[in-house]
Amino acid sequence: MNTPPADTDVVNFGELDPKTNELLQKGVVAYRTDPERADSYFRQALALTPQELAPYYCLYKIHTYMGSLDYAADVAADGMKEATRQAGWPSDPAAWPTQGEAPDGPARFALYTLKVLSFIELKRGRHETARDYLEILSRADPQGRVGWKVIEALAQGSVQ
């Protein structure tokens, strides 16, 4: 496996296929100077291992930052669908189980991604959809472990 140069920050994406990890690490480094190349690396990683959640995260994160909100939302929805499949949860977030404690693994990724989708919807001006997602998160993650309460505060500020 090619490892990134020692002067770069390596992101721990967890246990991944080595080629997928290599592509993601290259994308992280490339993003600083060439977001389009980073996008290409992340898309390659997703195509190589669509069952891995990290490539979805990388893609929706950079596209949110770049303002490509429609694409970011599509990738996030696809990643959330894969995460719920892996977690054994219903694909409809309204049917997700209520959590006493924050889950790990794919379930946590699904919750986190719904938080991201609520942020994207706020940015797209779809406040009602964002509030619907936040309502789901308030039941599925009542303690706010995935950080949705920050988005809720933003949503409350956007209607005043």
Task: Report on this structure.
- The protein is an all-alpha fold and 160 residues long.
- It has a single domain (18-158), classed as Serine Threonine Protein Phosphatase 5, Tetratricopeptide repeat (Alpha Horseshoe), CATH 1.25.40.10.
- 65% of the residues lie in helices and 0% in strands.
- The chain contains seven helices and no strands.
- It has helices spanning 18-31, 35-48, 54-66, 69-87, 105-123, 127-140, 148-158.
- It starts with 17 loop residues before the first helix and ends with a helix.
- Residues 1-7 have low confidence and may be disordered.
- CATH top level is Mainly Alpha
Please report the total strand number as a whole number: 0
The H/E string reads HHHHHHH
> The CATH topology is what?
Serine Threonine Protein Phosphatase 5, Tetratricopeptide repeat
Radius of gyration, in angstroms, nearest whole number: 16 Å
Number of helices: 7
How would you sum up the major sheet?
none
Instruction: Please estimate the helix content.
Output: 55-70%
Report the β-strand fraction as a percent range. under 5%
* C-alpha termini separation: 52 Å
Supply the CATH superfamily name: Tetratricopeptide repeat domain
Unreliable runs, pLDDT <50, ≥5 residues? Answer: 1-7
